[in-house]
Amino acid sequence: MLIAEYTFGQALLTVFEIFLFVAWFWILITVISDLFRDHEISGWTKAAWVFLLLIVPFLGTLIYLIARGGGMRERAIHEQAEVQQRFDSYVRDTAGSSPADQLHKLSDLKQRGDISDAEFEQAKAKLLT
Questions:
Q1: Buried b / exposed e along 34-68 (16+ C-beta atoms within 10 A)
Q2: How far is the C-alpha of 124 from the C-alpha of 118, rounded, in Å?
Q3: Residues in the chain with pLDDT < 50?
Q4: Does the residue 83 lie in any domain?
Q5: Inside any domain, residue 61
Q6: Is the pTM of this model over 0.70?
Q7: Which domain holds residue 7?
């Protein structure tokens, strides 16, 4: 086929076919990642699902989505909640240990009389170096 004979309709069809392939590949990767994220099923069951997904990919993906689709959503939400919790913990730990925050805490301790002026200056000098 010459490029001059390649019509606009054929070009649109090619783009649509590429879109469908990418969408199907994305779903396949999502199914496989969900399969290995699930800790409730055994390794043999996971191997059987992967075998089914490799032998008959479209049918295997459709069966997986019908049989285990509801659990996919729950596992994804649970994983996102865990990631958010770890991120929040990291931010709290990192933000809470800034020198400005520690100087503020030292100032509060000095104002309450828990540390002396000399201890305050020594701790301040240690923080600023």
A1: bbeebeeeeeeeeeebeeebeeeeeebbeebeeeb
A2: 10
A3: none
A4: no
A5: yes
A6: no
A7: 3-70
